Amino acid sequence: MLPITSLYVGLLALVFLALSFRVIAFRRANSVSLGDADSKDMRQRVRGQANFAEYTPIGLIILACVELQGAPASAVHVLGLMLLVGRLLHAIAFWVHPMIFKFRFWGMILTLIMQAVGAMGLIVHSIL
Question: Where are the transmembrane segments (predicted)?
Answer without folding.
Answer: 6-25, 52-70, 76-96, 103-127
